[in-house]
Design goal:
The complex is a heterodimer of chains A (120) and B (317).
Chain A (H helix, E strand, L loop, with lengths): L4 E4 L2 E5 L6 H17 L4 E5 L8 H16 L3 E5 L3 H9 L8 E3 L2 H15 L1
Helix pairs in contact in A: 1-2
Chain B lengths: L1 H14 L7 H17 L1 H14 L8 H21 L3 H14 L6 H23 L3 H45 L3 E4 L2 E7 L4 H18 L3 E8 L5 H16 L3 E5 L3 H9 L8 E3 L2 H12 L14 H10 L1
Parallel strand pairs in B: 2-3, 3-4, 4-5
Antiparallel strand pairs in B: 1-2
Helix pairs in contact in B: 2-4, 2-7, 3-4, 3-6, 4-5, 5-7, 6-7, 8-9
The chains are: A alpha/beta (120), B alpha/beta (317).
Chain lengths: 120, 317
């Protein structure tokens, strides 16, 4: 199932469900990277609150997504990583390097708004 | 009558060379034994208490206490011999252990006093039956297994009680050892004191990550001033904790790294760019406040409060 992308002001929001097939994740990456410039968005939030297992592929895709979106001129925040998931990821060496993270959607929004203020 | 019994026992001893006696025969002997122990209760008990003091056992207790405990142990001992059931003795041993463990009585003392009692009673049996060696032999056959089982029961009871206390204390220490404290809105501190083993490290991480979620923390100060040294595994775990916290959107500041730990962390080759470290806890909290946008100023520099407000406050207190 395709992952819906919501627009909230200058920010695009995508919410992942518990088990996301690799293809859907790749398609989300493509869609977001296109959408961010088409809609003149400045920020992207990927919400992974429901995700209980984050494998190397998924975290790689998320990291690439964040880097690609930065190259397209916007900021990405990954929000809602569960404590157990976070620790499992770190143990597997999946560190989401140079990717902003936040506790939940609200925090992510906060982060982006502050970012917009400093760059504006 | 006595002759008949002697003859009978002689036959018996020929039939059963040593330990293999029929159960009813053993119970008759045990009954005789118990009668003997009851008869000489005062004297044997005193002898036993004397030997306990001589051997410098139970030094944590006063002489009167030793004597009182000796009396009840003696009675329970005789009762266990008589009934051949050990439940009551077990319960008593547990109860006794519960009372004496907090006073610092050691395992060797408890085992020692039970073995002393066994010796005292065996001696009295020697004295009583020295004329009739075969009888003594059979009495001891009946006495020894029962006495050994009693010694076993008491020792096991004591050790189990001790282990229970230790488990309880471990549990308590584990709960106490990793407090996650909120010092300001969205600022947590995690003071770590003592030795960190891998199990404690894992628990620490879990508590911290859960704390970050429930307190919606943005900054966490981990203070390891109280940790003298850590091995590479635990240091690695610490670094992983820092990164996992970052994935939850919190910045971690590590304070109070000792030179040894700094050495360990450098040796395992951690990228220090990811680790935010400050010399001491105060510095860590100050930096955390900066990150959160707080500014702490001395009270003299703040504008004077409205008099009404402070007066109502004063009248309330």
């Amino acid at each position: 199932m395709e992952i819906p992308i919501l627009r909230q002001g200058r920010v695009l929001i995508a919410t992942l469900q518990a088990a996301v097939p690799d293809v859907d994740l790749m398609r989300l990456r493509t869609n977001l990277v296109q959408e961010v410039v088409r809609g003149r968005s400045q920020g992207v939030i990927v919400d992974v609150t429901a995700v209980d297992v984050m494998d190397s592929f998924a975290s790689r895709v998320l990291q690439d997504l964040a880097h690609m979106i930065r190259l397209r001129g916007a900021e990405t925040v990954i929000v809602g990583i569960q404590p157990e998931v976070a620790f499992a990821m770190v143990q597997l060496g999946l560190r989401l390097e140079n990717v902003a993270t936040a506790l939940d959607l609200e925090e992510g929004m906060d982060y982006l708004n502050r970012k917009f203020k400093t760059t504006a | 009558m006595l002759q008949a019994r002697n003859r009978m026992s002689a036959v018996q001893s020929r039939q059963s060379a040593g330990s293999t006696q029929s159960p009813e025969r053993t119970s008759v002997l045990l009954r005789e034994l118990v009668a003997h122990l009851r008869q000489n209760r005062t004297q044997l008990r005193e002898e036993w208490a004397r030997r306990i003091t001589e051997a410098k056992l139970l030094t944590a207790m006063s002489n009167e206490e030793v004597f009182a405990e000796a009396t009840s142990v003696y009675d329970n001992y005789v009762e266990a011999l008589e009934t051949g059931t050990f439940e009551a003795l077990q319960a008593y041993a547990r109860n006794l252990s519960e009372r004496i463990i907090p006073r610092g009585v050691e395992t060797h003392e408890v085992v020692g006093i039970v073995l002393l009692l066994r010796d005292v009673l065996a001696r009295s049996l020697f004295a009583k039956y020295q004329a009739d060696f075969t009888k003594l032999d059979r009495i001891l056959d009946a006495y020894e297994p029962a006495a050994n089982r009693i010694a076993n029961t008491v020792a096991v009871g004591f050790v189990q009680e001790r282990e229970r206390v230790i488990r309880q204390q471990q549990e308590a220490i584990r709960e106490l050892s990793t407090p996650v404290l909120q010092v300001r809105e969205r600022l947590l501190i995690l003071p770590i004191i003592g030795v960190i083993d891998p199990q404690r490290a894992r628990q620490l991480t879990e508590q911290l990550l859960r704390g970050i979620r429930s307190n919606r923390a943005k900054v966490v100060v981990i203070d390891i001033t109280g940790v003298a040294a850590m091995d590479a595994t635990v240091a690695n775990h610490l670094v992983q904790t820092v990164e996992a916290s970052r994935l939850l959107g919190a910045t971690v500041i590590v304070t109070g790294l000792s030179p040894e730990i700094a050495q360990t962390i450098v040796n395992i080759g951690v990228d220090l760019g990811k680790m935010n470290t400050v010399g001491d806890l105060q510095g860590g909290i100050e930096q955390a406040e900066r990150l959160l946008g707080y500014k702490v100023v001395p009270i003299a520099e703040t504008p004077v409060q409205a008099p009404g407000g402070s007066e109502t406050w004063r009248s309330q207190s």
